């Protein structure tokens, strides 16, 4: 009886309790319900993060955009985009999508929603190819493979996409490799870093650049994380580097090249003077050679004439020595005439030798002055090597060195034979003096013969004449012998000088080419000096152009999904390829005993 009463009370309580709970819940909900803001809302800015998934080879697959609004005034707002569907990521309020217009109500300071896209082109074409042991292989065939792996990633502008992102965004391409499976990782122009047990390879593609990157590695049991590509605006301002020291060094280079140009100009002038001196040397040498040839050609006549005089003197001496007291006086007249002819011949020979001596003296003086005009300065091997290592034309430098060596050789050769050249002039003077002296003696003899033809002792005069003729014949024999030796020396000297003159002729042609080469060299150094004179300004100009090329700090981003969207502060891209992974093994989940509710536990009491 007691149990029945308790049961009746409890059952009646249970019947009343739901009504009470419902009423309390209704009252509580009405008391704390937040009323939706009314009117049109406003936002100060929005950002877009574009998430895109690519196949292993880089073909586009899925894409969605997470839009974030910084709310200024809660209320109804509108966004634009060709979304296939939208999802509120902030609260549970509904969103309305009609055509390319999205309407929503924002209550919080920050509002997020996701819009899914289909067929929207990215600003970049991304192409990924794989090679295993040198052979191209599809991504879906790589799982579990071993060998030498090469991954090539090519980025280029997508003509169907928005060009402004390609021109102003940089791409950071990251590949993650498990160190247990990947060895000998090589990636040119990449940053390779450790990330725990993994190795991360990161490439950077600059704005407006189409790039190609390669990674090589030795792989075993291949698995691969997705290739991640982040595209962000290159909006970081580039600070202009301090180039004062570099510009100072370039100014020093400019001054040095100008100094080299001035030095080469002086060298050119010196070579021009050398060429003029060598030309004068050649003229003097030609005159000397011609004089030597004339002297050599007249030597035979001189020797023949001297031999005739020698024979005549000898014949006269023998005739007088063998004569008798009944000598015909007409023979003395012939003797007088013969002596005067001999004296005249000797005078003519003396005049010829004097003229030859004067010509030789002039030619020798010109030769000596010209050779002396060749510079004494010696150019060291180090200076010649420095000239070869400069920017001067190598062919011109070869000519400069060859002509310098030829000039020095000529100067040294002349120094060796100068003594012989100098001895010619005194010898000619001595020979001419001897001829003058003999001519005077013979003339005196003729005068004595003429004056002694009357009132003289024939025998005594003949004895004196015989004695004088014998002395004259003997002396003339010695003179003739010396004259013969002298003419032989002249002939040898004339033959040797042909080679000297030929060398001077070659030197003349060489110095002429040398002067032309020096002119070209000076023109070249002048161009170098001119091109380097503005080098510091050109450096600054190049730096300014480079900074302007990569400094995108003035870029004003636009919406990726619609040009109608306003107040866009930032647009970013997060792009991933599909991973190459083994499927996870399904784990058996332990059975979880279902938690009993209030009614179950209540019924358990009974």
TrEMBL record:
Alphabetical list of InterPro entries matching this protein: xxxLxxG_rpt
Signal peptide range: 1-26
Keywords of this entry: Signal
UniProt xrefs under NCBIfam families: xxxLxxG_by_4
Name of protein: X-X-X-Leu-X-X-Gly heptad repeat protein
């Amino acid at each position: 009886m007691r149990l029945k009463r308790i049961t009746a009370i409890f059952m009646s309580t249970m019947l009343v309790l739901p009504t009470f709970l419902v009423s309390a819940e209704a009252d509580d909900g009405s008391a704390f319900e937040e009323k939706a803001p009314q009117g049109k809302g406003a936002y100060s800015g929005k950002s877009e993060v574009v998430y895109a998934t690519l196949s292993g080879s880089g073909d586009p697959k899925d894409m969605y955009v997470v839009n974030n609004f910084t709310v200024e005034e809660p209320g109804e707002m509108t966004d634009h985009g060709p979304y296939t569907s939208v999802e509120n990521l902030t609260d549970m309020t509904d969103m309305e999508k009609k055509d390319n217009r999205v309407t929503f109500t924002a209550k919080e300071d920050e509002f997020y929603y996701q819009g899914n896209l289909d067929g929207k082109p990215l600003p970049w074409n991304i192409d990924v190819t794989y090679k295993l042991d040198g052979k191209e292989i599809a991504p879906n065939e790589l799982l579990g493979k071993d060998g030498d792996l090469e991954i090539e990633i090519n980025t280029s502008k997508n003509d169907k996409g928005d060009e402004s992102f390609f021109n102003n965004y940089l791409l950071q391409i990251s590949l993650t490799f498990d160190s247990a499976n990947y060895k000998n990782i090589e990636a040119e122009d990449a940053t390779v870093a450790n990330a725990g047990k993994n190795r991360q390879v990161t490439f950077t593609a600059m704005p407006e650049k189409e790039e190609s990157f390669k990674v090589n590695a030795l792989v075993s049991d291949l698995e691969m994380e997705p290739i991640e590509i982040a595209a962000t605006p290159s909006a970081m301002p580039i600070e202009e580097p301090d180039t004062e020291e570099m510009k100072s060094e370039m100014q020093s280079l400019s001054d040095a090249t100008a100094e080299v140009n001035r030095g080469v100009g002086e060298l050119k002038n010196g070579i021009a003077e050398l060429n003029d001196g060598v030309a004068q040397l050649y003229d003097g040498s030609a005159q000397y050679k011609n004089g030597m040839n004339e002297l050599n050609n007249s030597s035979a006549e001189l020797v023949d004439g001297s031999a005739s005089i020698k024979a005549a003197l000898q014949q006269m001496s023998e005739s007088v020595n063998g004569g008798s007291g009944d000598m015909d006086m007409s023979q003395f007249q012939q003797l007088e005439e013969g002596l005067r002819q001999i004296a005249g011949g000797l005078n003519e020979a003396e005049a010829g030798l004097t003229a030859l001596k004067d010509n030789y003296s002039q030619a020798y003086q010109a030769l000596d002055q010209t050779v002396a005009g060749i510079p004494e300065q010696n150019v060291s091997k180090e200076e010649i090597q420095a000239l070869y290592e400069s920017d001067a034309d190598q062919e011109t430098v070869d000519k400069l060195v060859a002509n310098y060596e030829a000039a020095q050789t000529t100067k040294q050769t002349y120094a060796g034979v100068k003594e012989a050249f100098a001895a010619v002039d005194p010898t000619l003077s001595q020979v001419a003096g001897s001829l003058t002296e003999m001519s005077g003696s013979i003339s005196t003899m003729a005068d004595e013969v003429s004056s002694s033809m009357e009132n003289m002792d024939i025998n005594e005069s003949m004895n004196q004449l015989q004695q004088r003729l014998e002395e004259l014949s003997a002396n003339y024999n010695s003179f003739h012998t010396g004259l013969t030796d002298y003419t032989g020396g002249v002939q040898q000297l004339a033959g040797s000088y042909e080679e000297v003159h030929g060398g001077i002729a070659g030197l003349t042609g060489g110095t002429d080419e040398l002067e032309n080469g020096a002119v070209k060299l000076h023109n070249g150094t002048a161009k170098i000096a001119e091109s380097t004179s503005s080098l510091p300004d050109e450096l600054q100009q190049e730096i300014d152009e480079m900074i302007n090329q990569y400094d995108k700090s003035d870029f004003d981003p636009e919406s990726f999904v619609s040009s109608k969207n306003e107040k866009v502060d930032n647009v970013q891209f997060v792009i991933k390829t599909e991973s190459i992974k083994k499927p996870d093994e399904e784990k058996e989940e332990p059975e979880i005993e279902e938690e009993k509710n209030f009614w179950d536990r209540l019924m358990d009491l009974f």
